[in-house]
Design goal:
115 residues; alpha+beta; Ubiquitin-like (UB roll); five-stranded mixed β-sheet; 7 strands; globular; binds FE2/S2 (inorganic) cluster; 2 iron, 2 sulfur cluster binding
């Protein structure tokens, strides 16, 4: 079972838990009372943004049009990302936890402070 380490941006550990591959990261965080801010749970508000670090980075990232649109609207992706071109999955890339299924490998998840 993959391990997920949740950290604050300053590196303070929030939790380390095991998660089933395929589970949505937001659901995992909610089940374990991780202070990950969210509102819609459907990929429209953009409040559940996180940064992911894992051993396979950098690699190409699959990202839905809906997720791209939200991140572009928030200024976290350039407009050019709408082209549908694959994006680089890198530690500084923002993702939406409600769109992100847990994978087989271990992750470090950086959780921004609540606004
Ligand atoms: S909770 Fe709204 S985009 Fe994820």
């Amino acid at each position: 079972m993959p391990r997920i380490l949740f950290l604050t941006p300053s590196g303070q550990q929030l939790a380390e838990i095991g998660a089933e591959p395929g589970s949505l990261l937001l659901d995992v965080a909610r089940e374990h009372d991780i202070p990950l801010h969210w509102r819609c749970g459907q990929g429209t508000c953009g409040t559940c943004r996180v940064q992911i670090r894992h051993a396979q980075q950098p690699r190409m990232a699959g990202m839905s049009r809906k997720e791209r649109n939200v991140l572009i609207r928030q200024g976290l992706l350039p407009e050019s990302a709408l082209s549908g071109e694959p994006l680089i999955d890198a530690p500084q890339q923002w993702r939406l936890a409600c769109h992100l299924p847990v994978e087989e490998g271990d992750w470090v998840v950086i959780v921004p402070p609540m606004e």
